[in-house]
Amino acid sequence: MNYLEEFYSDFDEDGRLLSRHGQVEYLTTMKYIHDFLGGAKQVHILEVGAGTGRYSIALACEGHNVTAVELVESNLNKLRAKLDGSEKLTAIQGNALDLSMFTDNSFDMTLVFGPMYHLFTREDMLKALSEAVRVTKKGGHILVAYCMNEAAVIQHAFLHGNLQKVLENDMLTSEWHCKSEPKELFQLVRTEEIASLDTELPVERIKLIAADGAANYISECIDSMDDFTFEKYMEYHFATCERQDLTGASNHTLDILRKI
């Protein structure tokens, strides 16, 4: 996992989510977390792949009991440095593939917002999902984030002018699916692949949403918006982010599952 440590030691994840266009993903994800918490207080929440704590700390500050598991030590150190001791948050180093430190049915809600970006076999993806489902209480929700294939092709290959490099390095299949490998850092999927994973688990899908929709395609436009325009853009985004004809082209999707 050295490649992850190297990447995240230099990558400004907080800055990404705090940028105006990055706020689309953050605000959308928090909206759906709150929707499925249903106003409940002091809920036990597990975040697997907590990064630098953007979600875990926010939820702990709302009064929830949060356990944050993060693989990358530099991220974990950044998370812990933000805490003042008043939060109901436990931060530990751990791997999404092995949550054996937790018993079955321990958490009301489990968030898996980072691991599926960096798991490159179906076996590992199912293992991480199975562990997240196992530790979630029956009837509880599991929210899983994915990086999507079409956004990567459109933006990296065409918009950013890397098509020739992509073709020369044999990074695409004949069906325009990115060949995701650890050296490329990110696993890129399509909606049908997410659905296929779900069929292997004791869950029912509640929603699959476009967490950021078109935000990264028009990031410069969004970053230049005044407050009124951005508020209206978010209204538009919330009105369309559940439309399945748009979901597959989002940079990130959020799969919302209920444990049976």
Automatic annotation (TrEMBL):
Question: Key word Methyltransferase present in the record?
Answer: yes
**Domain Methyltransferase type residue range list:** 46-143
Xref: InterPro entries: Methyltransf_11 (IPR013216), Methyltransf_Superfamily (IPR050508), SAM-dependent_MTases_sf (IPR029063)
Q: Which UniProt keywords apply?
A: Methyltransferase, Transferase
Q: Name one GO molecular function term.
A: S-adenosylmethionine-dependent methyltransferase activity
Fetch the Pfam families from UniProt.
Methyltransf_11
Annotated Gene3D superfamilies: Vaccinia Virus protein VP39
Regions annotated as coiled coil: none
Task: Establish whether keyword Signal is in the entry.
Answer: no
Output the GO biological process annotations, alphabetical, semicolon-separated: methylation
Q: Which PANTHER family match?
A: METHYLTRANSFERASE, METHYLTRANSFERASE DOMAIN-CONTAINING PROTEIN
The name this protein carries in UniProt is Methyltransferase domain-containing protein
What is the originating organism of this protein?
A: Ruminococcus flavefaciens
